[in-house]
Amino acid sequence: MIGVLVSGNGSNLQALIDAGLPVVAVAANRKDAYALERARAAGIPVATFSLDCHADREERDLVMATWLEEQGVELVVCAGYMHLLTRPFLDRFRGRIVNVHPSLLPAFPGARAIADALEAGVETTGVTVHHVDDGLDTGAVIAQDVVPVEPRETLEARIHAVEHRLLPRVVSELCHVRS
Ligand code: GRF
Q: How many Å apart are CA 32 and CA 102, to the nearest integer?
């Protein structure tokens, strides 16, 4: 049973849903995330955990972790989730949180990975699915796929296309390991 954390468009969430994976809950840190519309359209329970409604990040993450557990979530997938997770959340789902990132980590961590790769002038970049720890995109790598930078105009679209193949494949494998 998968819970997905989102902040934005949700195309990776859509790829998980379209792959027929058992997504049972979607949590966002902002109520205007389009990903919430995608989840609702698929009949998946959603909730928003905005920082304004909590004393601090730890409290927000604790409440979010509890909600996910109540939905039966065993594996958490960060799919375009733009906040770092704090200790209370990591402790609840230890070893059971993965993230998709648009570079070949450890190269280009952070929120501007595609722009950073372009600025650095590298010939190849790619996509990483990795375990989540308390660092910024520092957890152990599970799988990577390489994407050539040229033609630059289509790099972002090609990276997203690779994400949409790699993330469901890895999540599916993790689900089978768990069942
Ligand atoms: C993806 O490129 C993901 O790797 C990054 O944020 C983007 C989210 O896209 N962390 P979406 O919301 O899944 O469409």
A: 23
Report whether residue 102 contacts ligand 1, using a CB cutoff of 6 Å: yes
Q: What is the pLDDT of residues 120-167, one digit of tens each?
A: 999 999 999 999 999 999 999 999 999 999 999 999 999 999 999 999
**153 contacts: CB under 8 Å, gap ≥ 6:** none
What integer best gives the mean pLDDT of the chain?
97
> Which residues, in sequence order, are CB contacts of 165 under 8 Å at separation 6+?
15, 145
Of 36, 35, 4, nearest in space to 21 by CA: 4
Q: What is the pTM of this model?
A: 0.97
The finding on whether 163 has its CB within 6 A of some atom of ligand 1 is: yes
Distance of CA 112 to the CA centre of its chain: 15
* Parallel/antiparallel/unpaired status of strands 46-48 and 141-148: unpaired
How does residue 179 score in pLDDT terms, banded at 50, 70 and 90?
low
